[in-house]
Write a structure and sequence with these properties.
Distance between the termini: 41 Å
Strand order of the largest sheet: 3-6-9-12-14-15
Shape: globular
Radius of gyration: 16 Å
Largest sheet: 6 strands, mixed
Helix content: 25-40%
Order of helices and strands: HHHHEEEEEEEEEEEEEEEH
Structural class: alpha/beta
Number of strands: 15
Number of helices: 5
Length: 187
Amino acid sequence: MLDRIREDVAAARLRDPAARGGLEIALLYPGLHAVWAHRAAHALWIHGARFVARALSQGARALTGIEIHPGATIGRRLFIDHGMGVVIGETAEVGDDVLLYHGVTLGGRSTEKGKRHPTIGDGVAVGAGAKILGPVTVGAYSLVGANAVVTRDAPPYSVLTGVPAKARPRRDGEDSRALLTAPEYVI
């Protein structure tokens, strides 16, 4: 468990240029606190303590502003930057080394039972305010632009921008930070 915490702190330090030190990250980053609470809630969820799991996840939501359903499957080194308003639904699957900015929704489009939420591949970065809706798959190492609305599958190494989002291949050397934050990519 301690190794996972160190790994999470190192991932935050790598992805956040404003990070000043491990202690500051561990104590003051709500995205990490939400992920850590999710790990405990998810363990309770899969062992059948669903009410307690939901209670823990709602407590974490109240403290961090980040809602992660205890049924969601989260990979290693997820970093939620700023985090306020992030929502991750029950059947969402998030790969390793994923970066989510504030206001991201990994949500559903129906009330039917079964897989209703997205699958996010390893190394995906999702810009502020983006919505990924339904049982779609965003392939590994893709970028989802700020405020994009994704409702269709995207292959690995894609760039998704617009409403509704359209996928195109990533270009070599492309500045991913611009895609995630710059107004010219927001529609």
